Amino acid sequence: MSNTKETVLEINLAHLTHNFNYLKSKVAIDVKMLAVVKASGYGSDASVIAKHLENIGVDYFAVAYVSEGIVLREAGIKTPILVLHPQPLNFPKLIEYQLEPSLYSSRTLKEFIKTASLLDKKDYPVHIKFNTGLNRIGFWENDVDHIMDQLKVTNTVKVVSLLSHLAASEDHNEREFTLDQINSFKNISKDVSEKLGYTPILHQSNTSGILNYPEAHFDMVRTGIGLYGYGNDAKYDAELKPVASLKSVISQIHMLEPGESLGYNRAFITSDFTKTATIPIGHADGIGRQYGNKKGFVTINNKRAYILGNVCMDMIMVDVTEIDCKEGDEVIIFDANLNAAQIAEYSGTISYELLTAISPRVKRIIIDNN
Ligand SMILES: *Cc1c(COP(=O)(O)O)cnc(C)c1O
Fold it and tell me: Which of 17, 59, 126, 234 has the lowest tally of Cβ within 10 angstroms?
């Protein structure tokens, strides 16, 4: 029996090492590994994750926003950090903290060159993002000449990488679309490299790209979800080890008579004698209301206990009528056995959303068995 006494998110660094090595084994020896640690390291702790990965030889980090990069620099991270989706407002801070922008439009390229010139920068490392089908952010193929015109007249920036992002690399039914994206990126990269006079680092693959499309590995791969133990496919999930485990405790047990209601808005009415357990985790901790009304469950003494009624801000109530349990017993929301992908799927979402929703209120505990 574990000694979980409150709601905690355990972060297992041995599992992180395992996942990193597994993903690295899937790419050629000279392909660089970029670790995506946005959204607090997919809901864990970005600084802890990044320090560990820095120690075991990661080549690059990526975050979504400048503020996330600053957190890493303040934690002492020295490895290059790519900011995937910066806003021009934050370019001065980005430069102050030696972060590297992904420039994805004429506006961001122009604004970045302006900011870098004002700060007297020479050859400041930048990354150019191309849209090859996700249609989210990025330059289009026919923007290349315009990009070159802007770059020709300045020496404030240096293009260190070209990147694009796959829309459906985990989806085997979209193989043709993905291969088109890969081809399109190859053509753009060739064109840009010729015009620059050198070939920057090329990268297009996320975790599922690494696992499903060896032809899309190029010079570097960007892995997020895989590092945290999920492969978007049962076959790969079996090889990876979930890093985070979300655990809690039974605060109180109630015995309800038939016909009683439970929780806000009386969303659940008992039809029989019902034993309920109240758990100190709610939507403010990241267990959204979509998990209520038996769309989600927790595990208590190896048995499933479904969430009854609405999820509250700070609590859920679960059905333990058939479970031998008592106040103070451990509750597992997800762990390496019953993982976040399985819980998420049951409620109609994906591991990414469940993991990144775990709020800062949940205490993080680092497990480091070297
Ligand atoms: C989030 C993100 C990734 C990581 O994707 P995973 O599926 O988690 O591996 C890679 N590249 C970009 C541009 C991203 O936004």
Answer: 234
